[in-house]
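stuck on this fold:
=====
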Amino acid sequence: LKGRDLWVLVLGRFPTHHKIGIPEFKYVANMHGDETVGRELLLHLIDFLVTSYRRDPVITRLLNTTRIHIMPTMNPDGFEATKVPDCYYTQGRYNKNGEDLNRNFPDAFENNNASIQPETQAVMNWIKNETFVLSANLHGGALVASYTFDNGNSVTGTLKGYSRSPDDDVFIHLAKTYSFNHASMYKGTECDNRQTFPEGITNGYSWYQLEGGMQDYNYVWGQCFEITLELSCCKYPPADQLEKFWRDNKAALIEYIKQVHLGVKGQVTDKNGTPIPNAIVEAKGRAHVCPYRTNKHGEYFLLLLPGTYVINATVPGFKSILETVEIPDNTGNFSALKHDFSFSEVSIQSRAGSCPKTPLYQELERASSAAVKPTLRVLGLMTIMLVIFK
């Protein structure tokens, strides 16, 4: 960094620290320095939230029940370097070292050997130090809500041109929440009409493959659902258009934050009511390649659409607890369903539950292809037998 700090403003009833039961949300903009609309929108959003508190009942409830982190610019050097605004591309896309920050994160699918930049490292530390549940990063150059995965392999279905995460239904819902609350994104006609996005959303990989992206990193290693919002056909539009961009995005920006209250949340404790950090808590059938674990307060947050789920809480070395929960649509109530787990037979000290920054899906692909081989052999034998018997 050229001596510039990355500034984050935190808004909420308890802005200075995490409160048990209150989910953490973040917006990040301008990681490509020449994509400027998001940066301005987040400044407007801060102003709107602060001035509406205690005046608007919805905003008041939102701020009382959510801790909202806003980083208007992740790439201040790139923004400053964009001397001649351009709709399509400038050198300001990159940071001071000429690196694209949205190709700079550890990748879950391949070893991208990225030299981690100061801005990237700062965001990775930030993700590690907070319990983020939901996030979006704001870009420009198209008009679409794009969701994880941006990269992929055969395990995630890339052979069919789509890289599916275990929470694909939730991601589609999140992307549609933004596009349908936006003035025109849901129409799905892309900026130059060469490409259309049905309902204004796309799976990242289906659009184009991207290695080392921030949204995949958030989901795999940060336990945080993030989507990428492309908000303007022109990357750096004239200033007189900014007011319209704010009008077009205002409702969507608010509705999207509310989705942090989807699903189920709670605490995992021992027989004495002491929180158990690093317990694995996941919905059955939705195991993450890097298991989702409780934070230091024993808290978990799982974004899930309304429905019936079996939630599996596991403290390594002890018997798992499986409990069925019926999840209502609680976003209107500004609180996910609360469901705690108590391990009566354990009293346990905290154990670190780190996940390696290696390409985890690469290992999964190797394991699944090794498991498939004997099956193929059997199929081959069956085919030969059928031919003989015919």
Remarks:
- Confidence is low (pLDDT under 50) at residues 374-390.
- The domain at 9-261 is CATH 3.40.630.10 (Aminopeptidase).
- The first helix runs from residue 37 to 52.
